[in-house]
Each structure stands twice: as C-alpha cells, then as structure tokens.
Amino acid sequence: MKYKLVIISIVLTLFSCESSLIKVYDGNNFGYINSKGVLIINYKFKKAYEFSQGLAPASINGKTWGYIDKTGDFVISPKYESATTYNKLALVKDGGRWGFINKKGEIVIPFIYRSATPFIYGISRVEIDGKTKFIGLKGQTLFESTYDYVGVFNNGLALFSKNNLFGYLDIEGREIVSPQFMYGGDFEDGFAPVFTTNQRYYIDTKGEKISNSYTFLSGFSNGYAFVEGSNFKGYIDRRGEESIYVEGDSFYSFHGGLARFVSNGKQGFINTTGEVVVPAAWDLCRDFNNGYSTVYKDNSTSVINSRGKVIYTHYYERDNNN
C-alpha cells in the first residue's frame, strides 16, 4: 500500500531570502527589485535563487553557476554545474561531484560526493562509495548509516527505515523513536506526520501521539498543519486541536503567517484566523517570504506585500522556446 505525504516546505525555503532584494521574472530572465518595487538588478539571469548571507546563486546561460552580490556582479565566478543558497556554506557541483565552499569561494569540503544535501542545522547527508554518511561543517563524519533509508535532519531528528518500518534518529545515530510506522514525514515545529496500517496522525519528538487521525496530513509550519478528515477540513495547532476551519479546493502551509489556498482555479491567501487577506485572483502564488510573495496572472509577474498590495508588476511576452 502506498502512502502519500505532501510536505510543502522544500530545502531551499529554509534559507529565507533577504528582505532588501526580491527575485522577479520577465518571462525569459530573472532580476531583483527592492521592497519599494524598484528594479535594482536588471533581468539578465536565465536561472537564479534568492539572496542569503549577501549572495545569490545565479546563472547567465542556465548551465554554469556562480554567486552575485547585491549589485548584480559575480563575486564568485560562474563555473559550477549547480549551486545552492548559502547556509554558512554553499553546496556546489563541479566535475560531476558535490562539495562545499565558503563566501570567498574557497573549497571547505572537497568535491568527492556523488550526492549531498545543503547543511540544515549544521548537518549534511552525503553519499560516497555507495555509503550514506552525515557530516558536519568541517566535513567530519558524524555517523555512517547502516539503515535502508535515512532522511535529512529537522528539529534534531531524521526519518529512518529498518525492515520496512520507519522511526526517527538523533544526530548521533541513536534510535529515538523506534521503527513502528508504515511511513513518516520530517519533523517541523516539533511534530511529524506518521502513518500506521489504519491511522494517520502527528507525533512529538518523544514519539507521543498528539492529534486525531486524518485522511490527509501536511507538515507543520508557523505552528499549524493542514489536515482533512471525514468531519474536519482545516488547520490544527501545536496542541493538536482543530483551530481553523476552511472552505475551498486546496490549502497549503503557512509561511509568514499566511497560507495559500485555491478556489475555482485561482489562488490567494488566508491568515491564521482563516480570514481571506488576499482574494483568490491569481493564476499562481509563491509562499510569502520576509513579507512578500511573487504572484502570476496572464502574462505578468507581480510582487505583493502581506496586505495584498501590489508593489511591482512586469508584463512580458512568453518565450515558447524556454
């Protein structure tokens, strides 16, 4: 039997964009505006990410990556096959292998890994010589996995699998929650969604059940998790209590105190009382980050603030070749 879990948070959202510059798109290339809607870095990057620690990964040709400063100049030359945002160190790919560099572009952890994750809470999961290891910021091995599967660490715990059952490890490799679940999700805000043969609910970091069972679970974010069951559709809080009732097609995790929702094919945002603060009028919305969201409608890209006010709009012709 397959269990599906929607975890809205992705690794890159852990590395929040800096409020001074916001990434925007003109249909072909990316640029950056400030919080007043003024274009600061012109549209010239085929691919780009948000700023973190004063630098942003960017690529002019869409193939080789480097890092730009807030003037839009490359301070680390575009020579990498792939790059991620900084979180103390940046994960980059060179020669088909992954390694880590500092803000000066100096190699801190060599390019020896077949795969690797960005550092989260000072830990990266890497694969080398057919083995899965967890390393620290100096490249030191924290522990080597002997399990069928080990996920990434969140809130000090990582999902692992042994004999087709799932549990949770701490950063020293100790089994904190014994393998007993058919599947599980990452810990967020101190809670993780888990699946048994006939139930789906949340546990705390001690493995204790804190909620009712539901047919659909999402990850916690901003203190709430979207759930759906036979008698309830909405958000539960950290106590496991059903606190926000909602009506609509689809709902997503809270970011910056606002959550995306879909109604009649259009997207908008609600707040933590369930009140609609941005009406469902957009074709697509990105989650709020540092008070701003990028939204799309027809052939335009806009940036809105947490009150739904548009601070920037760019109209463009779609390039069907990209």
Helix content class: under 10%
Largest sheet: 4 strands, antiparallel
Mean pLDDT: 91
Anisotropy-based shape: flat
Looking at how many chains there are and whether they match, the oligomeric state comes to single chain
How many whole angstroms does the radius of gyration measure? 21 Å
Structural class: mainly beta
Number of helices in the DSSP assignment = 0
Overview of the structural elements:
This protein has 322 residues and is mostly beta strands. Among the domains are: 147-245, no CATH class; 257-322, Lipocalin (Beta Barrel). It has strands at 22-25, 30-33, 39-45, 47-48, 56-59, 65-68, 74-80, 82-83, 90-94, 97-101, 107-113, 115-116, 124-128, 131-135, 141-144, 149-150, 157-162, 165-170, 175-181, 183-184, 191-195, 200-204, 216-217, 224-228, 233-237, 242-245, 250-255, 258-263, 266-270, 276-282, 284-285, 292-297, 300-305, 310-315.
Task: Tell me briefly what this model is.
The protein has 322 residues and is mainly β. Among the domains are: 147-245, no CATH class; 257-322, Lipocalin, CATH 2.40.128.630.
Descriptive keywords:
four-stranded antiparallel β-sheet; Lipocalin; 34 strands; 322 residues; 0% helix; mainly beta; single chain; disordered N terminus
